[in-house]
Each structure stands twice: as C-alpha cells, then as structure tokens.
Amino acid sequence: MSSIALLVALLLGTTIVLTASALVYVTHRHPTIATPLLVGIGGAALIVAYVMPVITRQ
After folding, report:
1. In sequence order, what are the residues at sequence separation of 6 or more whose Cβ sits closer than 8 angstroms to the Cβ of residue 41?
2. Tens of each residue's pLDDT in the chain, 58 residues
3. pTM of the full predicted structure?
4. Are residues 11 and 51 in contact, defined by beta-carbon separation less than 8 angstroms?
5. Which phi and psi angles does 19 have, rounded to 5°?
6. Three-state secondary-structure class, residue 13
7. How far apart are CA 58 and CA 51, in angstroms?
8. Do residues 9 and 16 lie in contact, with contact meaning Cβ atoms separated by under 8 Å?
9. 27 vs 58: CA distance, rounded Å
10. Which segments cross the bilayer (predicted)?
11. Of 1, 25, 14, nearest to 47 (Cα)?
C-alpha cells in the first residue's frame, strides 16, 4: 500500500470518528430525538456505506 493510500485511510477514519462523535453529542444534548449510541453507529455506517463502493472500485 502506498503512502498516499495510508494517509487517505487515516483521514477517512478520523472523519468517520469525528462525525459519529458529533452525532452522539447532539443526540446526548437532546435525548428526546433518539438514542445517542444508535445515532452514532448509524452515522458511521452511512459514511462507510457511501465510501466502500469507491474504495473497492480501484
């Protein structure tokens, strides 16, 4: 694996973690919306679902 691919994977992983954390924080502050952990996992799953076809295409 090249250095650029590893860097992109690191940045993508960081983006997924930060997005899931932000979703968990928002739903924790407003618990009537949904369960925080479920929203965080769902958000991370959506990002992975969008990115995986692009990664596997190469």
Report:
1. 20
2. 678 877 888 888 888 888 888 888 888 877 766 777 787 888 888 888 887 877 777 6
3. 0.64
4. no
5. -65, -45
6. helix
7. 12
8. no
9. 36
10. 32-52
11. 14
> 17: how many CB neighbours lie within 10 A of its CB?
12
38/41 Cα distance (integer angstroms): 5
Half-sphere exposure of 9 (CA within 13 A, CB side): 8
The length of the chain in residues reads: 58
Identify the three-state secondary structure at position 31.
coil
Q: CA separation (Å) from 16 to 20, 32?
A: 6, 24
Cβ-based burial of 53 (10 A; exposed 0-12, middle 13-18, buried ≥19): exposed
